[in-house]
Amino acid sequence: EIVLTQSPGTLSLSPGERTTLSCRASQSVSSSYLAWYQQKPGQAPRLLIYATSSRATAIPDRFSGSGSWTDFTLTISRLDLEDFAVYYCQQYGNSPYTFGQGTKLEIK
Amino acid sequence: QVQLRQWGAGLLKPSETLSLTCAVYGGSFSGYYWSWIRQPPGKGLEWIGEINHSGSTNYNPSLKSRVTISLDTSRNQFSLKLSSVTAADLAVYYCARGGGSLWNWGQGTLVTVSS
User: What is the pLDDT of residues B58-112, one digit of tens each?
Assistant: First the structure.
C-alpha cells in the first residue's frame, strides 16, 4: 500500500500568513488521484481539493493544490481564523486508499 | 444538498458484530460510490471500503476478512458490518459519498468495544 507522509506535523502561524503543507507518497500516485481534507474538532472531514488541484464545491480560492508523482502540496494563500484545523492528504489511485497522518495548523 | 445520516450501536462487546447504516437525503443515490472510513480517537483516518451503485465492493485488505458493505437502493441506504470486533476497533466510523475522493460525510458514530 502507498504510505503518505505529511510535513510538518504541526504549524504555528498567524491569520493573514501564507502556508504550504506537504504530502509525500512512498510511490507514485496514479493519475494524480490525490485529495486534501480539512477536519475541525468534533467534525467530519471536509473535502477541499481532489485530483491534486481541483477545488471542491464552495471551497474558497485561497486554497490551492499542486504536485505530481510522489510530491504534493496544499497552499493556503492567506490564513483565515476558520482555517486553523487538521489537514489530511489522501491518495485514491491505488487500493487500498490511504491517508497521511495529518498536519495540525494552529494559531500562533 | 446531499446529506448523510448514520446510526448504529455505539457499545459492543468483544467478538460481537458492528453494524452501522447510512441514509442519503437530498440527492441521487444511484450512479455513485459509497464509502466507510474510521478514525481512532486522537488519530488519523483509515479507509475501510466502498461499494458502487451496482453492488460491487472494494475493501481494505487489513479488514477484508471481517467487513461487509451492502446497499439498499430502495431506501437510499448503505450499511457496514464488521465482525469479531476487538478493542482495536474503537473508533469514530464515518460514511461518505464517493469512491476515492469523499465529497459528503455523515456525522460519525463512536463505536466502543468493552466487556
Answer: 999 999 999 999 999 999 999 999 999 999 999 999 999 998 999 999 999 999 9
Coil vs helix vs strand at B98: coil
A62: Cα separation from own chain's centroid: 13
Q: Count Cβ atoms below 10 Å from residue B40 Cβ, excluding itself.
A: 13
List the single residue in B with minimal CA-CA distance to A41: B42
For residue B98, list chain A residues with Cβ-Cβ distance below 8 A: 47
Which one of A33, A47, A88 has the shortest CB-CB distance to B44? Answer: A88
